[in-house]
Structure formats: structure tokens, C-alpha cells
């Protein structure tokens, strides 16, 4: 088990499993913002990889993969559910603008860091990649409420990561998808 998998498991346990069991109010603050801790941890531990891969991003390829991802994800949502199914205005803490910025940037970076960068090795053999994709996509789906469309979103973003061998492509595709989804939701309310 690598350090990346340990980070992923710790993230899931501290951010989702323990709080869902009920945490006494006097220690809830330890879990409430644990995602920030994991984002900072990933950046500190793997900053050289993030910087190197960022420098290797090809804008034409980035646009191609973002457009491909969004098109497939949009189709999945049209066939399965509405874009706004997972967004409940009453659950958005603070301003809608802050929620929007979080989903488009920080959320996409953190989730791609945990569910793709830490759980999937793009250099592994095909069998290991498929197993990692299924586990990663399943956990990604569970964290987002368990929808089948979210599972397929995880698979598409994993495909982008494996094909490009660069986490920035899936981060941008994820952020682009979240941005368009939230904009469509905002237009519809």
C-alpha cells in the first residue's frame, strides 16, 4: 500500500465515515474542515509532480479532453438525471458564489487529487488500472450520494487521467464540468 492510498483511505474515513457515524459537537471541528488538511497534505507531498505535470500541459490537448469529457458527462446526465439533482440550495453553506468557486476550483482539485492521482497509477498494467478505476469511481460515487451517473463521471475522469498520464487534464475537465453544471442550475432557478 502506497502513501497515496493511505492518504485516500484516511481522507474517506476522516471526512466521510466518522462524521456520518455522529461526532460529538466538542470535536466536530476536527472533521468539519479535514478536506482542507488533505488538500494541503497532497500539495506539500506531491508539489514537484503537480508543478512538472502543469508545465507539460498542452492547451490543444487540454481543450480536446475537456470537451470530450464534458460532452460524455453531459450526455450521461441527460440520459440519467438532471444536472441539479445533487445541488440543494438549502444545503449550500454560505453564498452561492462561494459554493460555485469551491466546486469549480478547490473541489475539483481535491477530488481529482484523492480519487484519481492517489488511487490510480497511470503507469500500472491494464488490469491494475481497471481495478483502480472501479474502486476509485465507486468511492467517488458514494461520496457524492451513490448515483450511477456519478460512478460513470468517475470512470470518464479516470480515463482522462490514464490517457494523458497528467492529473491536470482531469482537474480541468472536472472543474469545467462542475462550472457548466452549476451555471445551468443557476439559470434554471
Automatic annotation (TrEMBL):
Keywords assigned: Hydrolase, Membrane, Metalloprotease, Protease, Transmembrane, Transmembrane helix
Residue ranges constituting the CAAX prenyl protease 2/Lysostaphin resistance protein A-like domain according to the UniProt record: 95-180
Pfam families: Rce1-like (PF02517)
Key word Membrane present: yes
Transmembrane segments: 27-50, 62-80, 92-110, 131-161, 167-187
Biological-process GO terms, alphabetical: CAAX-box protein maturation; proteolysis
InterPro entries found in the cross-reference section: Rce1/LyrA-like_dom (IPR003675)
GO molecular function: endopeptidase activity; metallopeptidase activity
Keyword Transcription regulation: no
Family stated for the protein in its record: Belongs to the UPF0177 family.
Protein name as catalogued: CPBP family intramembrane metalloprotease
